[in-house]
Amino acid sequence: MYDIVLAFITSFLLTFFAIPSIISVARKKELVDEPGDRRAHSVSTPSLGGIAIFAGTIFSIILWTPFRYFGDLQYILCACIIVFLIGAKDDIDPISANRKMLGQIFAALILIFFSKLRITSFYGIFGITELPILLSIAITLFIIILIINAFNLIDGINGLSGSIGILMAVTFGTWFYMVERIELASISFALAGSVIAFLYYNITPAKIFMGDTGSLLLGLVASILSISFIEHHQYIMDTPYAMYAVESPPAIAVGILILPLFDTLRVFTSRMLKGNSPFRPDRNHIHHLLLDLGYSHMQATAILIIVNIGFIFLVFKFQTLGSMKLLLVMLLMASILVAIIQAIRAKKINKNKLKKTI
User: Fold this and answer.
1) Cβ distance 15 to 208 under 8 Å?
2) Backbone dihedral angles phi then psi of residue 147, each to the nearest 5 degrees
3) Is there a smaller number of Cβ atoms within 10 Å at the N or the C end of the chain?
4) What is the DSSP string of 101-137?
5) Percent of the chain with pLDDT over 70
6) What are phi and psi of 122, to 5 degrees?
7) Taking the CA of residue 13 as centre, how many other CA atoms within 13 Å lie in the half-sphere pointing to its CB?
8) Distance (Å, whole) CA 172 – CA 226
9) Could you tell me the CA-to-CA distances from 306 to 88, 160, 311, 335 in Å, in that order?
């Protein structure tokens, strides 16, 4: 317990005191994110906050994780370093989407083949339980890449991706602590400490953004924690920790990450239906819809965080429904909520057009 608390405090303090220096250097070297048509900010803002998040998290994990719990943590750290380098390069000197994807795949394969991070069971979803090894590898690779990019794509307004990251890390971290997966609990709370410190500088008016360096790291850690959460249930049922097992682990994991996952799948589907590349940027994310309704960055972030918390309570409350039914319920509810927001937005746009014609 003390190691985890110390990991949280250390990552918080290191990140908190590192960010002012990063802001200063970024402004001197003009490493800033400029306003634009798709940007939600109106002033030039440094976008290297992810460097401080990475430094605080990794330093804290290495310093405070007891060696006897280290296990496959070395491979997780290697994957984090790869993703960090990709994000830092893209924040400083943008690279193509294909090169970013190749780097993410490389990091994912390290996790799959060296740390044995794999989805091996569907827990009855589509009537499937145990997965053949090749299908297991393919699905795990897809899930890791999906979650990494989901966090990258929701990083569009102040505080949003960071707040979701904290919510995710604290929820998973608490469970991993209860089942004595200390190494994963250390990762969770070290990340939470760093991101909380970062949010102090990221709330409106934002002094710094996390950039791809931070959002890709958040996504990678979220994928590791969610897959580990799902898989670990197969090993605790005949142990003293069985009391902490949940029913429908896949649905619980999706519920914790519902905002980035649903928004990414919705936006990708919408783009492809229009004949565009799923990676072609637009202003159709949920946070953009809320901004169009007149909400500020922090108001939109607060609304979305409350909604995400609501889904977490929902999945824990109704976990006995089973993963398939619970996933369908979440999909239906999320779709209805977005449809309502879109309808209100369309009504407001039509009203403004009518005013201009009068």
Assistant:
1) no
2) -70, -40
3) C
4) HHHHHHHHHHHHHTS-----B-TTGGG--BPPHHHHH
5) 96
6) -95, 0
7) 7
8) 8
9) 31, 11, 9, 17
How far apart CA 163 and CA 148 sit, in angstroms, is 16
> In whole angstroms, how far apart are CA 100 and each of 24, 222, 272?
27, 18, 21
Q: Write the CB contacts of 225 (distance below 8 Å, at least 6 apart in sequence).
A: 168, 169, 172, 173, 176, 184, 187, 188
Q: How many residues in the chain?
A: 358
User: Are 83 and 103 within 8 A, CB to CB?
Assistant: yes
* Closest residue by Cα to residue 43 from 194, 158, 195, 161: 158
33: amino acid identity, one letter:
D
Residue type present at position 181: R
> For residue 52, what are its two tokens?
């401080």
Is the whole model's pTM more than 0.90, yes or no? yes
pLDDT one-digit tens code per residue, 64-78? 988 777 778 999 999
pLDDT digits (tens, 9 = 90+) for 299-336: 999 999 999 999 999 999 999 999 999 999 999 999 99
Give the Cα-Cα-Cα angle 278, 80, 162 (nearest 5 degrees). 65
